[in-house]
Amino acid sequence: FTERAFLNGKMDLTQAEAVIDLIRARTDLALRSATEQLEGRLGEKIRQIRDELVSMTAHINASIDFPEEGIVPDEGETLHARLDSVCEEISALLATADQGRILREGVRVVIYGATNAGKSSLLNRLLGYERVIVSETHGTTRDTIEEMINLRGVPIRLLDTAGLRTSASALEQEGIARTEKSLETADLRLHIADRNAPQPSHFEECAGNGSEIVLLNKSDLPEHLDWKSFAALRISCATGEGLAELENEILTRITKQNLRPESTVAINTRHRDCLRRALESCNRARAA
Q: What does the DSSP assignment read for 252-277?
């Protein structure tokens, strides 16, 4: 029915695309965004931009084709101002691309660290149920495990990864390689360590940047002297201690990186490609 409505001009392509976003919406904000796009809010913004460009082109063409009519074309600063206004509107829509990705796919949060640090336990705690097998045996998780949660209205894609260590096992080495690949594409990283054990080598050098939260797990057990005065968030996956503070910190980091989907108008990948080409054309027109 959606296809027939589109082919018969009852809805535009942005509205047709909104149907699948509506079906897949995982949060109230994603649902509201899809509903507004289905009602034509994004399509209307695009039409307004197009109408302005058509009006500018028609006015210039008319002044060339019918000089005897005395049509004075927009030129110089006036024409530049109109083009600049259109470019600003296109840029504003392009700026919602990350928000659109988050609404549809969620913020990628990767949990990583040494083996037996509590990565799988943390995933289970954040999910609220036993999704991953937890064992004291090192190297239990061999592959990347991904689940979605709704963290106070923000969709979060949690990825539990294979523990980082030197291993002779080809299977575990592949898991570690996938961990490193996941880290490259992460929006936020949760670097977890066992505070009851000695500090891993080079831990401090690779921790503590803006897109990473350092966690010291097992706060219900005595802390090793290596971690004394170490700046990190202390949690316990066994008792749940510190998990509320962790959720607050995740949301704070997301907000600082402008990853929180505040706008309900959010473009998808196809929209972004079209708008980028439109912006390039406008810039070429301005230069000409």
A: HHHHHTT-S---S----HHHHHHHHH
